[in-house]
Amino acid sequence: MIRFIVRRIVQSVPLLLVISLLIFALIHAAPGGPLSTYLENPNVRPEDIERLRKAMGLDRPLGIQYLSWLGAFVRGDWGFSYADGRPVLDRLVERIPATLELVGVACVMALIAALPAGILSAINRPFDKVSSVVAVAGISLPVFWFGLLLQLVFAGALGWLPSSGRESFDGGDLADKLGHLILPATVLAAALSAAWSRYLRRAMRDTVARPFMRAARSRGLSERTLLLHHALPNALPTFVTVVLLDVSMMASGAVVTESIFAWPGIGSLFTEALAKRDYAVLMAFLMCGSVAVMVLNLVADLAVHSLDPRTRDAA
Amino acid sequence: MTRKLLERTLLLSALALAACGKGDKSRASGAASDLLTIGYDREPDTMNRYATHILEDIESCVVEGLVTNDEKMNIIPVLALEVPTIANGDVTLRTDGGMDVTWKLRPGVKWHDGVAHTSADVKFTVDAINKGDWKPESVDGFDRITSVDTPDSLTAVVHYKEVYAPYRLQFVRGTLPKHILDGKNIDAAAGYNRNPLGTGPYHVVEWKTGEYILLEAVPNYWRGAEFPKIKRLLFKFLPNTTTRINQLKSGEVQLVALVPWDKVRELRGLPAVRLNTVVGNGYEHVSLNQKHFTPFADVTVRRAMAHAIDRDLIVNTLLDSLVTVVNGPIQPLSSAYEKDVPSYPYDPARARAMLDSAGWKVGADGIRARDGKPLSFTMITQSGFAIRENVSQTLQKAFRDVGIDTKIRLIDGTSISSVWFKGDFDAMLHWWQSGADPEITLFFASDRMPPAGRNVNYFKDDSLTTLLYASDREADETKRIELLKQAQRRVASLVPELPLYNTSKVDAVPTRLQGFTGNPANAGPFWNVWQWQLTAK
Which of A86, A148, B471, B493 lies 20 to 30 Å from A282 when distance is taken between CA atoms? Predict the structure, then answer.
């Protein structure tokens, strides 16, 4: 097991190197740069822009910029934000708790909805019809539209919930925090649970149709035991892989949801950094995102390992 | 696992109920007269006024300039006793071509830590900026200062090596506190840059990254203990426009500065909101890049295009009459504004005749051509501005009506500046938002094409260039204005670009807020925040 993990980590090093080169090239290929907002402002003279370009080291050839970034990054120096001059690491770290909180709660909510919905729709035809309509709606609702709609209804018309932020500036007790969490977490959870419930349904139905289930039923096992002790464990590995892959995509922040709800996580930092072409923050963010995807992929494999004895034997 | 899930479910349901009550509570506290909540479209990068390229609103509540500009764009003293001029003897021209400006500081002004604000701070500011070991956003004007003398603690004499006409706004961003920053690397002075020491009515209590900045009134503001009237200002960062407008409607925020024009209709009729409109100091126009699309080099073509546009129609329909038609780059509020300039009323018949006379004949497809080349160009504009997209389509139709083909290309906000900076476009619909000083050299002088300036029309006229540089080197305000008026007449007669309308600024403020005036230039609407007051309901 340890050898497996070590091998995966070693394999990921060249991959990360290639990724870093690719994203560096990509973000620099996009038009504009950290100084483009200055161009629009008549009060900042071209002489000033040239002076700042030199001071920020943006006048150096791209290859040199990449190598100096890589050299520093490997040594643990993530550089300074082009926008506010603060250390990139500080800017990322201060945003992580908010993202973990939002993504964590959204995932739990999504699981609470998806697990029963997936299992039930695999065995109950009328429920399946209803839930598939709901799931299709959940999957196809554009996040920004659904988010704004919830704001209009629950914060605007009804006035029950705050429409943005993580907490009131003068509040900050648990109820206040949870109140702020409901709308963004619901928006995220809606899309996730819709997709997840469909995956689980599919996996359950595949399992239920297999001969060992018929054999178990013929042995007189109750439907409940059949479902929860025979079908579910067999359906879970596929489901868990899908869930963890989805979570790994969201580990880099729920970009759209965070920006609509002004949620101070790394997703909204990304939106901001992208608009300002804050190369230092973007590189760090994208590298962290890549690492998160790799780590959660590994976790998914390990989870399948432990859930599915067959893979354990193979290893 | 299941038990944990169950616990979480219960917790979530409980909090849903709890939060309902909370929502109401925060509404009530938001309405209190000691707190004003502002929905702000971005989080500042820094609170150091010299390191940010716009005079951010939040900063101007904390750090005051020696002067500011009021809602009529008059330059008025703040930490200075008066604005130096030749007439009051505070500006003298030296025989070697240089000039000396004497700033008399207001006595009794203290930094928030109780240390007196003195001429040493003025000198330190100039020296720190000219030292060049950090990254102030603009060194404009400072790079022409040779030295600063401080004959006494309230007098700073600034020596310029040449005449610098916008000298009055040299210290509009204020001064840097010597006793805090002396000997420090200002770029890395996080303490100052996140929580600057100022002399203004408020100080920073809390900056919660990604969420808000909370300001609180200082106890002994120099204008008197009764100011400011509002105890706390909360700036919530809400980059999404719809979220900002939704929160204004729900009462979660009470003030939103610079409401996009296409949202104004939504906000009309809200009982708690007043829409305050000021004529802005910017103008929407179509830049015509003569270098990239050579037919624009012909003044007859440019004049014909100006005649083709029904600007009144655009203003009255698409813009709900929020703005006014303008004929040039200096706006009506400016003291240098020239009203009597050649203008180009809507007259498509005349436009057609002019294009005919210039040799552009209508082809079978209805598009004009000369020497086999069609009169067809691409107009770029920034995406995401609903009204601007509508205006560009109206222009497209207007030009088509006189036989000119226009293609529209929308470019996102971050990318568009790099496109025009390279001169890689035919025409561009956009605006410039200028400071209170009327200088326009950067936009029209022949040697100010990018990258040396913002003459994106790539327009070359020697007599205009001479006039503009003469105005920059004129310290006498009256004479400078006369030169600028001549320059405006010249610009209007040669139409290097097509001026459309003034960019009015609409701010949504609570009806019970007194003293709010808005501000046309980049001093921003918070320029007089010390006198704002929230009345009881």
Answer: A148
C-alpha to C-alpha distances, B57 to A186, B226, B435, nearest whole angstrom: 34, 22, 14
Cross-chain residue pair A175–B433, CB shorter than 8 Å: no
- C-alpha A182/C-alpha A185 separation (Å) is 5
Beta partners for B275?
A: B508
Domain B3-59+203-279+505-534 adopts which CATH fold? D-Maltodextrin-Binding Protein; domain 2 (3.40.190)
By CB atoms closer than 10 A (0-12, 13-18, 19+), residue A25 is: exposed
Q: What tens digit of pLDDT does each residue of B109-161 get?
A: 999 999 999 999 999 999 999 987 888 888 889 999 999 999 999 999 999 99
* Integer Rg of chain A from CA: 24
Q: What would the two tokens of residue A45 be?
A: 């003279």
Check B252 against A85: CB less than 8 A apart.
Answer: no
* Domain B67-181 class in CATH: alpha beta
Show the domain range for A40.
2-74
Asked if residue A272 has pLDDT above 90, the reply is no
Does the beta carbon of A87 lie under 8 angstroms from any beta carbon of chain B?
no
Rounded Cα distance between B488 and B5, Å, is: 71
Residues of A in contact with B27 (CB under 8 A): 159
User: Burial letters for B439-477: b for 16+ Cβ neighbours within 10 Å, e otherwise?
Assistant: bbbbbbbbebbbeebbbbbbbbbeebbebbebbbebbeb
Residues of B in contact with A274 (CB under 8 A): 414
Question: Is A82 part of a structural domain of the chain?
Answer: no
Question: Between A206 and B485, where is the model more confident?
Answer: B485
Q: Is A177 in the same domain as A307?
A: yes
A259 vs B5, B236, B239: nearest CB: B239
Would you put residue B24 in left (φ > 0), alpha (ψ -120 to 50) or beta?
A: alpha
Distant-in-sequence, close-in-space partners of B194: CB < 8 Å, separation ≥ 6: B46, B47, B204, B207
Q: Report CA-CA distances (Å) from A201 to A107, A131, B121, B361.
A: 18, 10, 71, 68
- Strands B497-502 and B282-288 turn out to be antiparallel
Residues 315-334 of B with CB under 8 A from A: none
List the structure tokens of A20. 């870093």
Query: Which residues, 6 or more positions from B475, have their beta carbon under 8 angstroms from its beta carbon?
Result: B86, B91, B93, B99, B163, B164, B165, B167
Band the pLDDT of A235: cuts 50, 70, 90.
confident
Contacts of residue A315, defined as CB under 8 A and 6 or more positions apart, other chains included, come to A1, A4, A305
Which ipTM score applies to this complex?
0.79
Check CB contact of A168 with chain B, cutoff 8 Å: yes
Selected from 2.40.40.10, 3.40.50.620, 3.10.105.10, 3.30.40.230, the CATH number assigned to the domain covering B280-503 reads 3.10.105.10
Q: Is B27 on the interface with A (CB under 8 A)?
A: yes
**pLDDT of B10 above 80:** no
Is residue A137 located within the same domain as residue A281?
Answer: yes
**How many domains does one find in chain A?**
2
> Please, is A286 exposed, middle or buried when counting C-beta atoms within 10 Å of its C-beta (0-12, 13-18, 19+)?
buried
Looking at residue A152, the DSSP 8-state letter turns out to be: I
Other residues' Cβ atoms within 10 Å of the Cβ of residue B184: 13
Phi-psi region of B523 (alpha: psi -120 to 50; beta: other; left: phi over 0): alpha
Tokens describing residue A163 = 């429409």
Give me the residues paired with residue B217 across strands. Answer: B202
A36/B contact by beta carbon, under 8 A: yes
Is the CB of residue A286 less than 8 Å from the CB of residue A234? no
pTM, whole model, 2 decimals?
A: 0.84
pLDDT tens profile B157-179: 999 999 999 999 999 999 999 99
Whether residue A256 sits in one domain with residue A182: yes
Pair A273, A152 in one domain: yes
Is A155 in contact with A211 (CB distance < 8 Å)?
no
Give the domain-ending residue among A49, A74, A99: A74
